Backbone:
């Protein structure tokens, strides 16, 4: 009765057999229509899928091809120029005699001094934020802005270094000024890396130390820092490899482009590999461009080596961290 | 149970808050020397929080606050004169998940002594042997004390954590579900160990395992929603509980 009522309402009066055939007809039609829609839909999705994959491969290859082209070009120009003389000669007005001794010694000095200054400060600040700082507005503000500092253009740090270290502290264009300036540049990176590494240390490890009567400092020094050291080192090495590639801030603080001596104390004036490369590329003679290419290979070698160490440490650390 | 033993730990009108949340409500309880006291109750009833009051582990929670007294040997341990690091040498703790340091077995055991500045090798060696023997681990590891603690099995790791605690010569050991991460065989070994340790130590153990509470403890306290519902000898509590809620919980009807 209810059926009849409803059928009346929607204007259909069908016998049961009629209803059946009608439904069957619908049944036959609809799957067909549906499947064509579905087919189109599927095809489109597959197409999107495929094209995105192609775009992805293409994008990857743009980077790789450009890098490969650059490497091949540099190696073609410069590899033949690298020999013991090139590494052990002072720069010269004659391209064939010129070497990069002061440049790579300067880079080593800068690397060592910057590491010595930036690592203790950066790690201490990172540990402070994670272990000691109360979660209040001031610290929140500081945290956000340290992350922001990592994005400030390097030449601005150069200007800061010029004002503070060269003028206020009268350090001149010395290795010390360079190291301090580059420290400013990479501190934010080290702080952020330290924080991430310290954050990843499980709470249970801290509880174990506290439970045995360790003070906060003892817990941090004997347990948290060793457990976080892999992550800290990875971040620090990447930061340092950025520092030794910098040119702009060092030009601003007055590092020299032509240094016919080897710096022997932190107060000596200096040059670094990127500055030497910059200097040579501005010369018109082709022989100097060859020198620049050779110096670039040396700089790349150092950078790749450092990044390789960082990757190695990261892998080792990730394996160890699953307690 | 024979003669009443000395009261080692106690709380008087203890209220604990995490921010606005009232975790423990007016808990009055005495824990006796050289006994095993089990704290039972459903998750979130406050038993772990109560356990952690005795070595002040809750101090690390920013929003923690308390009212009332917590006493050890009749001394208020939240008093300003009490150094929390000193307290923890006397009140050791074993955690839910075995948490050895990622160092050698030897280094793990001497950690508590090393941070006190003890460097004498013969003292340390002696402490390692003594603690590992007490924790029933010595025979399994004595030939390889340089082995990394993380290479031990879960049960061995937990016994190492107990040995590490024993090395600082505490008088109280707090255990927060020490067997929950262990298999049945390792668990029963640990229970045997607890039974042996109570000769010399006062042990407070939080457990979710009723049979375990029944097996190892002399007294049992049942917590529910921050209240201490019932506390008494384990035998009595398990056979003829006074409260219906206790009865329901230990028979597994809720919780």
Residues:
């Amino acid at each position: 009765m209810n059926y009849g009522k409803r059928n009346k309402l929607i204007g259909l009066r069908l016998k049961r057999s009629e209803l059946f055939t009608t439904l069957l007809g619908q049944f036959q039609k609809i799957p067909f229509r549906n499947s064509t829609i579905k087919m189109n839909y599927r095809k489109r999705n597959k197409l999107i899928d495929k094209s995105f994959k192609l775009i992805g491969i293409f994008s990857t290859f743009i980077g790789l091809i450009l890098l490969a082209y650059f490497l091949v070009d540099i190696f073609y120009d410069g590899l033949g120029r690298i020999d013991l003389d090139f590494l052990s000669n002072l720069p010269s007005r004659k391209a064939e005699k010129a070497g990069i001794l002061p440049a790579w010694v300067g880079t080593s000095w800068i690397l060592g001094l910057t590491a010595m200054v930036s690592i203790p400060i950066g790690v201490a600040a990172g540990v402070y934020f994670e272990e000691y700082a109360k979660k209040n507005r001031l610290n929140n503000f500081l945290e956000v802005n340290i992350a922001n500092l990592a994005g400030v253009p390097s030449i601005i740090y150069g200007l800061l270094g010029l004002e503070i270290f060269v003028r206020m502290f009268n350090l001149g264009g010395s290795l010390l000024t360079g190291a301090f300036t580059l420290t400013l540049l990479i501190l934010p990176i080290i702080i952020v890396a330290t924080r991430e590494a310290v954050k990843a240390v499980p709470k249970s490890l801290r509880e174990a130390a506290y439970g045995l009567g360790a003070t906060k400092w003892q817990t941090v020094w004997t347990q948290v820092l060793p457990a976080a050291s892999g992550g800290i080192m990875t971040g620090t090495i990447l930061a340092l490899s950025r520092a030794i590639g910098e040119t702009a801030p060092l030009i601003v603080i007055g590092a020299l482009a032509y240094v016919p001596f080897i710096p022997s104390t932190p107060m000596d004036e200096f040059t670094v590999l990127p500055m030497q490369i910059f200097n040579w590329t501005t010369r018109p003679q082709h022989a100097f461009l060859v020198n620049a290419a050779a110096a670039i290979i040396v700089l790349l070698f150092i950078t790749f080596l450092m990044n390789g160490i960082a990757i190695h440490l990261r892998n080792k650390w990730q394996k160890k961290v699953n307690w | 149970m024979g003669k009443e033993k000395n009261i080692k730990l106690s709380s008087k009108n203890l209220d604990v808050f995490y921010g606005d949340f009232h975790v423990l409500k007016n808990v009055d309880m005495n824990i006796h020397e050289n006994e095993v006291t089990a704290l039972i109750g459903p998750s979130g009833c406050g038993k772990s929080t109560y356990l952690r009051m005795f070595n002040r582990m809750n101090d690390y929670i920013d929003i923690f606050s308390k009212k009332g007294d917590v006493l050890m040997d009749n001394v208020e341990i939240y008093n300003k004169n009490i150094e929390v690091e000193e307290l923890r040498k006397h009140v050791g703790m074993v955690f839910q998940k075995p948490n050895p340091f990622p160092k050698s077995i030897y280094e793990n055991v001497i950690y508590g002594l090393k941070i006190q500045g003890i460097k004498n090798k013969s003292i340390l060696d002696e402490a390692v042997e003594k603690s590992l023997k007490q924790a029933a681990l010595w025979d399994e590891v004595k030939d390889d004390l340089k082995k990394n603690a993380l290479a031990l099995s879960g049960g061995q790791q937990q016994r190492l954590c107990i040995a590490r605690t024993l090395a600082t010569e505490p008088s109280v050991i707090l255990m927060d579900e020490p067997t929950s991460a262990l298999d049945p065989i390792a668990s029963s070994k640990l229970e045997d160990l607890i039974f042996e340790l109570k000769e010399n130590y006062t042990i407070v153990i939080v457990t979710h395992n009723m049979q375990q509470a029944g097996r190892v403890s002399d007294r049992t306290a049942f917590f529910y929603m921050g209240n201490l519902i019932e506390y008494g000898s384990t035998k009595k509590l398990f056979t003829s509980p006074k409260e219906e809620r206790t009865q329901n919980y230990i028979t597994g009807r809720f919780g």
